[in-house]
Structure formats: C-alpha cells, structure tokens
Amino acid sequence: MTVVRPSSVTLEEFLKLAETKPASEYINGEIIQKPMPKIRHSRLQSKFIYSINEVAEERRIAYAFPELRCTFGGRSIVPDVAVLRWEHIKFDENGEPEDDVFVPPDWTIEILSPDQSSNRVTGNILHCLQNGCQLGWLIDPDDRSVLVFKPKQQPELFRGANHLTILDGIDLTLTAQQLFGWLKMG
Fold first, then answer.
1. Can you list the domains of the chain with their CATH numbers?
2. Which among 45, 78, 137, 171 would be 20 to 30 A from 113, CA to CA?
3. Closest alpha carbon to 110 in 97, 127, 98
4. Model confidence over 34-53: pLDDT tens digits?
5. CA 5 remoteness from chain centre
C-alpha cells in the first residue's frame, strides 16, 4: 500500500485528481493507494457480487458494486464490495444510477491482501459504521476467517460452518466454509 503525502491536499482537491489504478483513498488527509488485487481476491469479490445481486437486485432490495468510491465523513474510500440498499442509490432522470456516491455503503466488504494493513482496512470499516453503515466484513483468505462488524457491537470472528451475518433483507445464507470454497475452481 502506497502512502502519498502531498502538501496539504483537501478532500475536495483529492476528488478532482485523476483516478489511479489501483484506486487511491483519502484517509485523514493522506492519499493511500490500495494494493493491486490478486486472483484469490478477485475471485472472492466477483462471487460475492454475483451472489448478492442474484438475490437482491430484481426485488430492488440492494445492489453490490465492486470498487465503488464512497465519499462521506471526511474520507473517500473504495471498499472491495460496497452494498447499497436500493433506496440509497440515487438515480438520474433516465433511471440510471448517478456516478458519485456521497453516503456510506450499507454493507462494506473488504478482502485482505497479503501486503495490506489490516488495521488500516479495519479503520475504514469502523469509519463506515460510525457514519451509518449497518454491516462490515473483513475477509482474511490466508486465515480462512471473516471478522464481522456491526454498529456499537464487539466484532465477531467466523470460521468453518458458522453462518455469517448478512445485511437485513438480503435472502442469502452463507458460511465461512462456503465462502472460502469459492476459491476452488473446476
């Protein structure tokens, strides 16, 4: 993870900068570039998005977005998966979603990369929860665990056959074992 310390860039100035690949985030006055996703990260991310959208989109409950920039509470972050309840997605006059998101995701999902700071990622999840997010997941593929965060509660660690906590209203049942089973292909 690269930290760039330009001479006092404001959030507004950061939002005018060109996007980077991988994405950069604005956290506590610092511009921090996320690490480039690897194959396990991408596999889990795509399986999550598909699974959530399969049960939530048609009924207009929520939608899962990959790498969606969310700017709120003085930060601009890019969760690996940002799930927004349908009523929190702003649509234009053509019925298309507006590009810029200025609310926290209702459910933020982060997949830890080997060279990523777990404390920095946890800090983003906590920031989301402090600003209205209802659920946060920190997935550790190496440890085969999911740390689940809810507002004003102690986090819970899930492994194996324990059912993971899902955002209310989304009809999805998933265990940590099933989640990490997605890594097997063929």
1. 37-181 (3.90.1570.10)
2. 171
3. 127
4. 999 899 999 999 999 999 99
5. 24
